[in-house]
C-alpha cells in the first residue's frame, strides 16, 4: 500500500497519535499530537519521514495538546482541522492542562478549519472530511476511499463510541453520524481510532453494542 501508518501512543490517556506517510516520497503528516512531543519526534525520525502538516480530528487536550509545540519544532508546518465548532476547546487547552497537570500544552489556532465535504491531502493522497459531532462539536472523520480506511478520532472505537457526557456532548448526534455517514461506507473499511485497537466497519456493525 502506498500510504503507510504508524501509531505513537501519547500522554496518560494513551492516545493514538498517528503518523501517515507516502512510502515512495517519505512525505507525511502527524494526526492528533496530544502531547509527549519528544516521543512523536522520535517516531518521525524512526520512520524517516518529512512532515508536511499536522491534522487534528477534534479539540480535546489528549489529541491537540502538543500540536502547537510540534508545529514549531517542525518549522511551522500548517495545522489543519478540526471543524470550527471546536474552537472553544482549542482556545482552552492551557486551562485544561492545569486541570490535568500536563506540561508544555499551548492553545492552538489551526491554519485551516475543516468542514463537511472538504478534502485533505497527505503527500498527494486524498481524504474526504466528514463532520461527526457528538463527542465534541467539531469532531471530524478523514476518509481515504482509495485504500479503504479512515481516521475517526474519538467518534468510534472497537466495541464502543466516544464519550458524550460532556456539557456539550450529544449522544443522539454521535449515533446518527456513525449510522448515516460511516456505516454506509462499507464493511471492508478499516479505521484507526483515538484510543485502543483498529477495527473495521463490518466488525462494528455486527458486534458494537452501541450500534446493534
Kindly describe this structure.
The protein has 212 residues and is an alpha+beta fold. The chain has a single domain (3-207), classed as Ribonuclease Z/Hydroxyacylglutathione hydrolase-like (Metallo-beta-lactamase, Chain A, 4-Layer Sandwich). The protein is 25% helix and 28% strand. A 6-stranded mixed β-sheet has the order 6-7-8-9-12-13. Strand 12 (190-193) and strand 13 form a beta hairpin. The longest helix is centred in the last third of the chain and has 12 residues, at 171-182. The mean pLDDT is 97.
What are the main properties of this structure?
28% strand, alpha+beta, 13 strands, 5-stranded mixed sheet, 6-stranded mixed sheet, single chain, 212 residues, Metallo-beta-lactamase, Chain A
Structural class: alpha+beta
| Portion in helices | 25-40%
Total discrete domains: 1
Under CATH, the homologous superfamily reads: Ribonuclease Z/Hydroxyacylglutathione hydrolase-like
CATH class category label: Alpha Beta
N-to-C CA distance:
32 Å
Let me know the largest β-sheet.
6 strands, mixed
Shape, please? globular
Rg from alpha-carbon coordinates = 16 Å
CATH architecture: 4-Layer Sandwich
Strand order of the largest sheet: 6-7-8-9-12-13
> What proportion strand?
25-35%
Order of helices and strands: EEEHEHHEHHEEEEEEHEEH
Give me the number of helical elements. 7
Residue stretches low in confidence (pLDDT < 50, at least 5 long) are none
* Strand elements, count: 13
Q: Which fold does the CATH topology refer to?
A: Metallo-beta-lactamase, Chain A
Mean pLDDT over all positions: 97
Amino acid at each position: 500500500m502506498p500510504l503507510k501508518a504508524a501509531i505513537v501512543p501519547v500522554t496518560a490517556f494513551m492516545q493514538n497519535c498517528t503518523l501517515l506517510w507516502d512510502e515512495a516520497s517519505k512525505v507525511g503528516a502527524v494526526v492528533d499530537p496530544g502531547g509527549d512531543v519528544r516521543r512523536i519526534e522520535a517516531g518521525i525520525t524512526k520512520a524517516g519521514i518529512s512532515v508536511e502538516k499536522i491534522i487534528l480530528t477534534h479539540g480535546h487536550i489528549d489529541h491537540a495538546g502538543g500540536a502547537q509545540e510540534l508545529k514549531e519544532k517542525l518549522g511551522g508546518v500548517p495545522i489543519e482541522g478540526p471543524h470550527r465548532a471546536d474552537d472553544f476547546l482549542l482556545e482552552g487547552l492551557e486551562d485544561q492542562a492545569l486541570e490535568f497537570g500536563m506540561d508544555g500544552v499551548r492553545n492552538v489556532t489551526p491554519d485551516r478549519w475543516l468542514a463537511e465535504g472538504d478534502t485533505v491531502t497527505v503527500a498527494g493522497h486524498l481524504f474526504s472530511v466528514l463532520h461527526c459531532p457528538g463527542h465534541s462539536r467539531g469532531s471530524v472523520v478523514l476518509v481515504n476511499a482509495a485504500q479503504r480506511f479512515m481516521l475517526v478520532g474519538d467518534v468510534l472505537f472497537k466495541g464502543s463510541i466516544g464519550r458524550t457526557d460532556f456539557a456539550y456532548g450529544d449522544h443522539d448526534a454521535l449515533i446518527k453520524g456513525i449510522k448515516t455517514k460511516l456505516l454506509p461506507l462499507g464493511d471492508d473499511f478499516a479505521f484507526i481510532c483515538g484510543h485502543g485497537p483498529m477495527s473495521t466497519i463490518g466488525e462494528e456493525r455486527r458486534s458494537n453494542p452501541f450500534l446493534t
